[in-house]
Specification:
single chain; mainly alpha; Clc chloride channel; 2 domains; two-stranded parallel ribbon; two-stranded parallel sheet
Length: about 450
C-alpha cells in the first residue's frame, strides 16, 4: 500500500476548505444582500416621516421583547456574541438567532437606533455557518473554522472589503494572535461573499484620499500623536459602553421596559442636538471624509447614543458607530492642528477600529481598501499606536488575550478581557487597601 504523502494531505485539505468556504461565502453574501436591501427599504419608508424617531422607545421595546423570548443570544451587538459562542460554546449558534437578529436590527435602525450593520451580518453569517456545520456533523474544531469564515464573510460583504474582512475574522477572536490555520478559508469566504452581495445589487462606499503630503518628520509626529489621541478616544468609547451597560444592569425592571427608557433618552438627545447622531450616521461619516468641518461634540454625542442603544434593548453592530466616532474625531484633530480634515478623518476611522476591536492589521488593510494606498503607511502607524494606547480593554469583552501589551496584568494570557480586567481591578484595589493600612499604622490613623 502506497504511503500517503504530506503534499497529498495538504492538497485534499486545501480542496476541502475551498469548497466549504465558498459555500459559506455564497450563503453569507446572499443573506447580507437580503439584510441590506430590507434595511434600506425600511429606513427609506420611515425616513418619509420627519418625526419617525419619536417611535424609538417602542422600537427598542419591541427589539428587546423579541430577543428576550425568541433568541436571547441576539441581544446587543452581534460580533461579540459570535466571539462568545466560539470561546464558550464550541461555536454553536442557534438557528433562531438568524431571523431574530435580522428583524430586531432592522427595527432598531429603521427608527433611529444608533448602531451598525456589520454585527448582525457577522452574527447571521456565523449562525448560518454553525447550522451548516451541524448539518454536516462537523466536530467542534471544524465548526469553529466555519463560524470564523462566517464572521469574515459578513464583514467583507457588508463593507465591500474582502481582504480586511478576512483578516478581521481571524484577528478579532484573540488579542495579539492570528489564526493562520483559517487564513485561506477566511480569504475565500470573504471574496465569495463580497462578489455575491455585489452581484445582488449591494453598493459600497469608497473614498480615495488624495491629500497626503510628502513625508516629513513633523507630519509623521502629528500622525503618531493622532494615534495616541485616537487610542484615548477608543478607551473612552469602550468605557462608555461598559458604563451604560452597568447602568442598565442596575435597573431592576423587566428588560423590554429598559427599551422604553433608552428610546426616550435617544429622543431627548435628538431634540436637543440633532437626528444626525441617530441611525447609521453614514451622511456624517461621508461629510467627515470629504473634509467638511464637523462639530467638535459629534464624536462624544455618538458615543453616548450608541452606548444607550446597545445597552437598553437595541440590536445592531458597533463598527459603524466606531467609523462615525473615529472619522469625526479625526476630522476635529485635523481642524485643531490646521491639517487636512479629510486625511485625518480617514486615519481616525480605521485607527479607532484598531483600538476598540484590537485589530490593527485588519484596520490597516481596511485603510487601503477604502481610501487607497497613499494613506496606508500613516493609517498603519496610527492604528498600531491606537491599539497599544487602548491598553487591555476591548469593545468585545469575550476576546481572549494571546499576549499582553504590557506587564501590568500578569497571568492573563488565555483569559477573556472581561475576567482579566476584573482581576486587575481587584488586585489594584487590594494594593491601594494595603498602602492605606500601612499609612494608618505609620501615622496612627
Amino acid at each position: 500500500m502506497r504511503k500517503v504523502t504530506e503534499s497529498t494531505v495538504l492538497f485534499i485539505s486545501v480542496l476541502k476548505w475551498f469548497v466549504l468556504a465558498s459555500v459559506v461565502g455564497i450563503i453569507v453574501g446572499f443573506s447580507t444582500a437580503i439584510f441590506i436591501h430590507a434595511l434600506n427599504y425600511s429606513s427609506n419608508f420611515t425616513g418619509r416621516f420627519s418625526l419617525y424617531y419619536l417611535f424609538l422607545p417602542l422600537a427598542l421595546f419591541l427589539s428587546s421583547l423579541i430577543s428576550k423570548y425568541l433568541a436571547p443570544e441576539a441581544e446587543g451587538h452581534g460580533t461579540e456574541k459570535v466571539i462568545e459562542a466560539v470561546h464558550k460554546r464550541s461555536a454553536k449558534i442557534k438557528a433562531a438567532v438568524i431571523p431574530v437578529k435580522l428583524l430586531t436590527t432592522i427595527i432598531t435602525l429603521a427608527f433611529g437606533g444608533s448602531a451598525g450593520k456589520e454585527g448582525p451580518c457577522a452574527q447571521i453569517g456565523g449562525g448560518l455557518s454553525s447550522v451548516f456545520a451541524g448539518i454536516l456533523k462537523f466536530d467542534s474544531k471544524d465548526r469553529k473554522k466555519l463560524v470564523v469564515c462566517g464572521i469574515s464573510a459578513g464583514f467583507a460583504s457588508v463593507f465591500g472589503t474582502p481582504i480586511a474582512g478576512a483578516i478581521f475574522g481571524i484577528e478579532v477572536l484573540f488579542i495579539g494572535g492570528i489564526m493562520y490555520d483559517i487564513l485561506l478559508p477566511s480569504f475565500i469566504a470573504g471574496v465569495m461573499s463580497h462578489q455575491v452581495s455585489t452581484a445582488l445589487g449591494v453598493s459600497y462606499f469608497y473614498h480615495t484620499v488624495e491629500f497626503v503630503p510628502e513625508f516629513s518628520e513633523i507630519f509623521f509626529l502629528k500622525v503618531l500623536f493622532s494615534g495616541i489621541f485616537i487610542g484615548l478616544c477608543s478607551l473612552l468609547f469602550i468605557e462608555s459602553m461598559k458604563y451604560f451597560k452597568d447602568i442598565s444592569d442596575r435597573i431592576k425592571i423587566w428588560n423590554p421596559f429598559k427599551g422604553l427608557i433608552g428610546g426616550a433618552a435617544l429622543v431627548l438627545i435628538a431634540l436637543v442636538f440633532s437626528t444626525d447622531y441617530l441611525g447609521l450616521g453614514l451622511e456624517t461619516i461621508e461629510a467627515s471624509l470629504v473634509g467638511t468641518e464637523i462639530s467638535w461634540l459629534a464624536f462624544l454625542i455618538k458615543i453616548v447614543t450608541a452606548s444607550i442603544t446597545l445597552s437598553f434593548g437595541g440590536s445592531g453592530g458597533v463598527v459603524t458607530p466606531i467609523f462615525f466616532v473615529g472619522s469625526s474625531f479625526g476630522n476635529m484633530y485635523g481642524q485643531i492642528l490646521g491639517l487636512d480634515p479629510s486625511t485625518f478623518a480617514a486615519i481616525g476611522m480605521v485607527g479607532l477600529l484598531a483600538g476598540c476591536a484590537n485589530t490593527p492589521i485588519a484596520a490597516s488593510i481596511l485603510a487601503v481598501e477604502l481610501f487607497g494606498p497613499k494613506i496606508a503607511p500613516y493609517a498603519a502607524v496610527a492604528s498600531v499606536t491606537s491599539f497599544l494606547m487602548t491598553g487591555h480593554r476591548s469593545i468585545y469583552p469575550s476576546q481572549v488575550y494571546a499576549f499582553m501589551k504590557s506587564s501590568s496584568i500578569k497571568g492573563a494570557v488565555g483569559k477573556e478581557v472581561e475576567s482579566a480586567v476584573t482581576e486587575f481591578h481587584l488586585r489594584k484595589k487590594g494594593l491601594i487597601t494595603s498602602v492605606m493600612r500601612l499609612f494608618r499604622k505609620l501615622f496612627g490613623r
